[in-house]
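Instructor's aside before we start: the two examples that follow are unrelated to each other. I chose them only because their records fit on one page, so don't look for a connection. First example below.
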Amino acid sequence: MSVKTAGGSPTAPTTSKRISGTLYRGREGMWSWVLHRITGVAIFFFLLVHILDTALVRVSPEAYNAVIGTYQTPIMGVGEVALVAAIVFHAFNGLRIILIDFWSKGSRYQKVMFYVVIGLWVVTMVGFVPRHLINVFSH
C-alpha cells in the first residue's frame, strides 16, 4: 500500500505506530532506572552534608553541637524516613541490576524482579517506619 502525496507521486507505506523522541513508554525498566538515579543522587547529597557537618567538630565544637541539635527535631525524623526509603530502594534495585547483568536469563525476568524489589521495599519500610516514628515523636 502506498500513499499519494499532493503532487501525485507514491510514498513509502505509513505505519500506525510513530516513535517520537524516546523509546521508553513508562514501563518498569524506565521507572526502575529513574528511581535508581534519583535515590543515588539523594544519597550522595546526604553523604556530602553528613561529611561537612561532621567536619564541624574540628572547626567549632559549639557549631557542631548546634547542628546536631537541629537534627533531633521531628521534621528531621521524617527526613530520616525518606533517607532510609532511598537507601533501601537503591540497595534492592542495585541487587536487581546485578542479577540482570550477570544472570543470563535476568533480562527476561526484569519486570518480575522490579515488582519483587518494590515488595521487599514495602515490607522493609512497613517494619521500619512505625518503630522509627514512635521513637521520633515520643521524645
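Example two begins here.
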Amino acid sequence: MTTTPEHDEKFAKMTFSSVYPHYVRKVESKGRTKQELHQVIKWLTGFDDKKIQELIDEKANFETFFKSAKLNPNAHLITGVICGYRIEEIQTPLTKQARYLDKLVDELAKGRKMEKILRQP
C-alpha cells in the first residue's frame, strides 16, 4: 500500500508535541515508562531528553523533527504493518520515518523486550 501526497503532507505538518502525550499515555497504560519511551526515541533519532523537550516546547513538526535527527543506521530493520501501512513499502522518507517511530512505540506498548525493539543481536 502506498501513501498519498495528502497523507504524506499531513505527517510533515503534524507536530511532535501533539503526538508525544499519546505516546506517553499508550506506553504507560501498558506498564512501560516514559524513560523507556525516551530510550526508544533516542535510539531512532539520537536525541537526548533535553532535545526531545526542546522539540516539544518549539512545537516542531515532524519534518523539522526528523531533519534534525540522526537516524539510527539500523532503522531499516524496522518492518511490519502499522496503521494499515507496510513500513518497508512506504516510499516517502518522512512518512517512513514517522511510521518507524509509531512502530517502535507500538512494540514498546505491546511489551516487546527492549533488545528486540532496538534491533540488537
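The chain has one domain: 5-111.
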